[in-house]
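Hey, resending since the last one bounced:
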Amino acid sequence: MLINGIEAQKHELSYDKIVKNTLASSDAMTIRFINGLFGDDIPLDAPVEWLDKESVSGKQTAVVADFYPRIAGKMYAIEIEQDGKSGDMALRVFKYTVGGAMLHSMAATRTELNISFPQPCIIFLSSTRSTPRKLTWNIEFFDGQKVKLEVPAVKLAELSVKEIAERDLLPIGQFYLRTFRKLTGRNIERFNEAAISLLTELKAAVERGAVPRSTGLRMQDTIRETMENVFIKSKMEVDFEMTTNITETLPWIDYEEIFAKIEERGKATGKAEGIVVIAKNALKMGIPADDVAEMTGLTCEELEALSING
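The structure tokens again:
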């Protein structure tokens, strides 16, 4: 499978983990994402807590959502689904919501139970006409009380790239290209336009501070890997060249390429010394100290000393 003369590779992408890791890299980005999902207006400096599910036992993994962020005291249950083909989605999300409440928001005495349910949302990365736009729970208690709750669903394929960017949903938007299934000659032009638009919006989000630079680098890689997977899935061989060239539209990607080349030279002088060589050369190239610190593991004070000592 060739893309612009380069052999495309198949990539294994764990969608829920990628989204979780993307969000966990920035509290402000997490808040923007939640605001975009639910139309909330949470201040960007609100406290964010990740209520991980990794500590639960194997028996409980079937009743927990992909991730549970708690922001300003309110918990959310976010579930990422590749498609909407499952016939028991309403039941599954109910289990995830109850499971999250029991794990993270329940207090009980001998005679009293206090439990707070998280705000759930299900995100469909691929969908068809039959994929639901919402889930409905009709709950009746033993004393006759009835509760009707609706759970919002997001169908990624129904969003435009512009809407994804405006709502700060780029953490799921990085998979937007996979909604083009099957890719054919009739929609290759729209696919091309979407790819260009995604990279352009990602660059703009990095520049305005909505997405951290290092996170943007990883998201860009995911976009390109998703693109290759779509081509392989469609079994098309195409000469595909994005007019939004990666080195022109997103020049900050060059940082990782520079580090890779410098690191190869640095290995010969030993690991610790090699890191110092990498950092010195990067600073001389004008790469921001924060980026150098993140990529080398050195502190800002150590970098300042390197800069002073040349």
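Confidence is low (pLDDT under 50) at residues 243-255.

Sorry for the duplicate.
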